[in-house]
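Fig. S4 source data, part A: sequence.
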Amino acid sequence: MIETAALLEAPWPDGDWAEITKKAVAAAVFASPQAALCDLSSTLEVAVRLTSDAEVQALNRQYRGQDKPTNVLSFPMVQADLIETLDNTDDGEILLGDIVLAYGVCTREAAEKAVPLEDHAVHLIVHGTLHLLGHDHMTDVAADAMEAIERAALASLGLHDPYQDSETPE
């Protein structure tokens, strides 16, 4: 079972972010090689914080050494090499990690791509969830694999292929 929490802060607009977050995280996990995690008797928890560029910039500076806002940050709570063992756990709750999205960056990118903010946020939540599951895009092979999972997850939600127009989350 997957449980998500959407933490909405200004300047993000009101919306059904709890449902959007829930669907995006579930689609990402289900489309990934770790799809068996969807069937755990334990609860897999992911928190998504929708916040300002200033907060994301501070987090990016503190944790990645980059003094600029970015569209999405992921903070895994499970080591990547332990993800594959989670389907054998008897823990009641597994905190997979946190995802943080920056409003200004996301809004600008959505406008540049001519997609609704909610659709772009879904893509970034899917992307962030894959990082929580241990995926990365540090090599061309890893990036291609991650993008394929993102495409599948987004297609399952009826959303367009974000890479047909060269969108690349950081």
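Fig. S4 source data, part B ends here. The chain has a mean pLDDT of 91.
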